Amino acid sequence: MNALNKPTVLVLNRNWQAINVRTPADALCQMATGVATGLEIEGENIHPVKWEEWIALTVREQDRPVLTVRGPIRMPTVIVLANFSRVPKKRPKLSAKNIRERDGNRCQYTGISLRPEEGSLDHIVPRSRGGPDTWENLVWSCKKVNARKGNRLPQEAGLKLLRVPREPRELPASELIKNSLGVADWQWFMKHE
Q1: Structural domains in the chain, sorted by start
Q2: Residue-wise pLDDT tens digits, 8-41
Q3: Do residues 10 and 169 make contact, with C-beta atoms less than 8 angstroms apart?
């Protein structure tokens, strides 16, 4: 995948709160149109740089420049939106990892704490019986218990859920941003990492 199209730019609202992640291509477009300002980050020195100044910045060894007809331009790692101050709320995406986190890494039938490889997703109402892939129908379960349950309902297998599964509440978007690529410049703006 082209480096311009990997989501490696942290987007901050005008209050400098993390709200999203964008590709460098998107970030450069937002900077060029005045929607956002790039942040030049050198150690603990952080300052906003408007587009006209950004394209004239010296490209450092650690920068991954974009090659243009005007010469190389630094790819930003963090941008600040000029006129957006809210922190949007989002729900976590439905995934095995997020079900496991919601259920506290515990089997929802036995209460036993599980390592990720010891558990699996269980459909309370099995798919073979029309059970959907929803927050309310999926729980984290011990693999042995899940295999024993098979395509039966919990009560048919002699099992009882410890608690009713629910869709997680909306969280500030900043809580859902993960720095999976380890972009060092994000450390100043990420509270949970």
Answers
A1: 3-89+172-188 (no CATH), 96-157 (1.10.30.50)
A2: 899 999 999 999 999 999 999 999 999 999 999 9
A3: no
